[in-house]
């Protein structure tokens, strides 16, 4: 006994990738889904952990480096703390919330219709609250160094003005959002997407 297999015609659109449909603008239907609230919690916890670890690293470095110039994790250690935390937290939350961890990323994805308005707003609120709580934990645990060293906040280096610093922040934020868009682009899996890398 054999089974009859019916083959459906395959329609080729000329593309070797599938563009996902745009997210609904408001997305009110998401309010009824547990996955939506789970994603908000993931964004809150990820941002809390990110700010806690990175700000504590900066304050710890400034505290130790103030006593001995050769002590502390150094600027490279601070960079590893930021990069390592982003790597770990995006890996942990990508399947739950998309691993945004930054309101600029969320806003960019909203403008590109990758997330709905309600999800974007709730993510940004969760990220902001997570950041406040993360820094609050640092202040609670390291109160004296936190107050003495300005909370680990960035300052404009001597020789630069605020406009230059703002420009650097804008360019850095653009590079971050551009990288997220590049990493999540459906064309990345397309055939021959690596060609520009191989050309000389």
Could you please describe the fold and organization of this structure?
By secondary structure, this protein is mainly α. The chain has seven helices and no strands. Helix 3 packs antiparallel against helix 4. The chain is globular and about 60 Å long. It starts with 33 loop residues before the first helix and ends with a helix.
Distance between the termini: 58 Å
Strand tally is 0
Poorly predicted parts: none
User: What proportion strand?
Assistant: under 5%
Given the C-alpha coordinates, what overall shape results? Answer: globular
Rg value: 22 Å
Give the proportion of residues in helices: 55-70%
Order of helices and strands: HHHHHHH
Count of alpha and pi helical runs: 7
Q: From the helix content, strand content and strand pairing, which structural class follows?
A: mainly alpha
- Arithmetic mean pLDDT: 83
Biggest sheet layout: none
Spell out the key features of this protein.
200 residues; globular; mainly alpha
SSE map:
Blueprint: H1 34-67, H2 74-93, H3 103-111, H4 117-141, H5 143-148, H6 162-183, H7 195-198
Helix pairs in contact: 1-2, 1-4, 3-4, 3-6
Question: Could you write a compact summary of the structure shown?
Answer:
This protein has seven helices and no strands. With 200 residues, it is mainly α.
